[in-house]
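Predict the assembly for these four chains.
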Amino acid sequence: MNNQILLIDCPDRKGLVYNITKLVYSRDLNIISNQEFVDTAANHFFMRTVIDGNSLDAEFKQQLVDVLPDEANIRLTVIKKRPVVILATKEPHCLGDLLLRNTYGELPCDIKAVISNHTHLQSLVESFGIPYHHVPVGVLSREDHERKVDQFIRKYTPEYLVLAKYMRIFSPKMVRNYPNRIINIHHSFLPAFIGASPYQQAYNRGVKIIGATSHFVTEKLDQGPIISQDVIPVNHTYTAEDMASAGRDVETNVLAKALKLVLEERVFIFEDKTVVFE
Amino acid sequence: MNNQILLIDCPDRKGLVYNITKLVYSRDLNIISNQEFVDTAANHFFMRTVIDGNSLDAEFKQQLVDVLPDEANIRLTVIKKRPVVILATKEPHCLGDLLLRNTYGELPCDIKAVISNHTHLQSLVESFGIPYHHVPVGVLSREDHERKVDQFIRKYTPEYLVLAKYMRIFSPKMVRNYPNRIINIHHSFLPAFIGASPYQQAYNRGVKIIGATSHFVTEKLDQGPIISQDVIPVNHTYTAEDMASAGRDVETNVLAKALKLVLEERVFIFEDKTVVFE
Amino acid sequence: MNNQILLIDCPDRKGLVYNITKLVYSRDLNIISNQEFVDTAANHFFMRTVIDGNSLDAEFKQQLVDVLPDEANIRLTVIKKRPVVILATKEPHCLGDLLLRNTYGELPCDIKAVISNHTHLQSLVESFGIPYHHVPVGVLSREDHERKVDQFIRKYTPEYLVLAKYMRIFSPKMVRNYPNRIINIHHSFLPAFIGASPYQQAYNRGVKIIGATSHFVTEKLDQGPIISQDVIPVNHTYTAEDMASAGRDVETNVLAKALKLVLEERVFIFEDKTVVFE
Amino acid sequence: MNNQILLIDCPDRKGLVYNITKLVYSRDLNIISNQEFVDTAANHFFMRTVIDGNSLDAEFKQQLVDVLPDEANIRLTVIKKRPVVILATKEPHCLGDLLLRNTYGELPCDIKAVISNHTHLQSLVESFGIPYHHVPVGVLSREDHERKVDQFIRKYTPEYLVLAKYMRIFSPKMVRNYPNRIINIHHSFLPAFIGASPYQQAYNRGVKIIGATSHFVTEKLDQGPIISQDVIPVNHTYTAEDMASAGRDVETNVLAKALKLVLEERVFIFEDKTVVFE
């Protein structure tokens, strides 16, 4: 992992790849991999380059600024363990899976804490040696509850918040505090079955496939940029509960995959959609 | 295929399987396969039994009536080539695939004719030796056009109408003429992207999976009982046109599969949903 | 779960379903679900019936014996937490997933202990409050090591042994001690890539899909009856290590699914293959 | 489609992307898309660049030669209808599908003729207005039959030969005549079930998934570079014939996809494997 990752997106124009790779070449560096995409409808250019070694610096970034359009977003980074806080409610499947992956280094993150409005998951989390903060709703207003939750979050200065079946909806204000930094798992194949009880909705409709969607959280419920989706077949023998049970495995896999893509710096957000260089 | 198929659905009660199989046994017949399902929420029983030979008759059916609840639906049938009329517009992929399968006996049907509001598909259909009726819309009202279409359909007394990317919507009256007899392919993973331009909708939403849905047509647009669905992955490099192109293969496969399930007498319709014994 | 499950397999003949359901009806019991299959090539009948309540007994079983062929296998059981011992080596993904599912009641089993030839997984297992037995190979012969492992197993009288990436091969004698009771996960889409280093083999061959297979262990390596399989797409960018990493999720899901099918009494073994009533 | 496609593969070294894009930029041309891959194990570089317009020429190619390693393979091409000859035996599904796609422009090819050792498919092919050459084996030796087949092939100077369920094996000499130009569909998930009767083999093994593989034909049977693979689930109710029937849809889709990838110039062959830029 002794590599640097260069992420650039900007309005498209001729010579972008040339100008960028010229700078890399001038440093006598090797390109491990290079992925580009031009959204021709939006005339926007995306590029993810993995560069051997660790020698690029602010000066290099300034040289990039000089050859790229003014609107360019430039990110020069490395893959390393990012601090993450998880929010959950009662269900253990996504949370437990992330804790396991965290323990065994399958995800480049460092889960700092888990916050929940219930106590159901406390012993699980603590068995992994990770702090668990129970913030009951009780008589608190939504705003007050969220404020208390945010106080715990801020203690850990996470780069990402992961909503691992957190069954409460963040206020627009809360979402704005963590722009493009909150990753949610929704238990349906969005945009089908937005909102509550998607498995019951799926059962009522008699679908033959169910799914799960991981997306960034924006101010519009279940409308944020989709990172990853997957599905499994079901049939008439599935009750809504059976669908929920079968769906748990899909939710678990989709959330883990989405988080991995984000942590490996493979995801661009652009106009309510993602560009994902797998 | 020298077998009879017995399809029964009725309110559930004790002894149904016993009473039905007793009658079969009393005729000294062999059960090739037997599939049952009880919708416990609706307390409704479904059974599909394949019986060796061809000896069951009206008397047997009457004996069934005597031991089953009054509300029982009983169908004693065989798998044989059913007359089918296909409606299409301009796109050849679903139609061409069904014509091939029809020619090679992969589907137990006999495609009697194809009706279209355009001429694009005429030479394809006629190269298979099948009549093609062009019913242009021109200045006709929707009712008049539909009436002319229906006149052609009636000439062939089809058991099923297949809408193989027929881009017009049947009136409620037309739907009522063919209850549970019209099979449509919708180019999305319903209930996502109901209505027009589903691939454009999917593109706009930035989904990572697209799909297709085959369903019976009811008076409510895209709301009929779902027979079969399938999906394929897509990504940010897909334009709406690319999604449409990739989706064509899914549409083709899903429609063929749904039609096969129906023609093999594997599909029950019950309260806006299907029970499919695969 | 207050139901009884009746599993019957025997040579096929007329009247089997009738005779079985007659007995159930004579007890005035309700059939919740009923699945049958006749292997026509082998002329063998399989049936799985879920019966409401808990009243069937040895007398009922004797009545079944009286109406079924002499060779019939009859199992009258319930779904309940079965004692299970897991064997593992160093990899945590399958083991951790099973421990989570065990904790949250997603699998009807009770994991009694984990045995490993290494210490890597000890803290994980013990954090779930489950005994961990380290049986190092060291200078032990294969027979002596296996004997020590079996001594630990016998302490727990498990109904099933689960090999969750246990990288040692049981002797034929050990396999015979647990006939149809040992469930393994193999990290390839069997029968492709039998034996060691399947991901390296898959990489060398340049396949575009990799998979995993859960099967019962028999005396022939990787040849036992297959319970469940699944796959994921890969491409030229995957190294053998990337394939192994991607494959871990498939292995995890396939093993959990296979174990669930077995514990829910859905699996018959017949002549090196399985009949699985999902 | 007014674009040029530049395909380069060569030993990897620093500055390749820079040097290539510099040349493109010097012509004031726009890069529509650019995909690269470095096989780090083999230290080999692959790049596929789509360039706006049609102005690149032999001089440009010479300039590339000057800046690339001596061993570089350089292909400057466009996507256009390539002449193709199909070989088939008796089964219509893959052939019919390709004929439909050919008719409707879904594949950038021009099917010039179909050659078969049987007459079963003659009327199908001729209904599409395409020449059909029947070359019966009869008393001909394998060499003589192949020579006659090749005489028909040569009349059409095809760029690719497609074996659409052609059930005969080409001699090494024949394969050498069309290096990297023969595309086959094998009815199994290779390397499982190499050789004859893969569905019977799959049935005997009791697999839960079956598949199909499209690959380039080399002198080693079923060992050529894999272009595309796909699978579908099966279960104990499938006979070998049912598997073959279900498998036909997979074969059809996989062959069409592989041919599309090749015709769209997305496939590199390197050391018995492919690099596919989808």
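The domain at 82-276 of chain C is CATH 3.40.50.170 (Rossmann fold). The longest helix of chain C spans residues 240-263.
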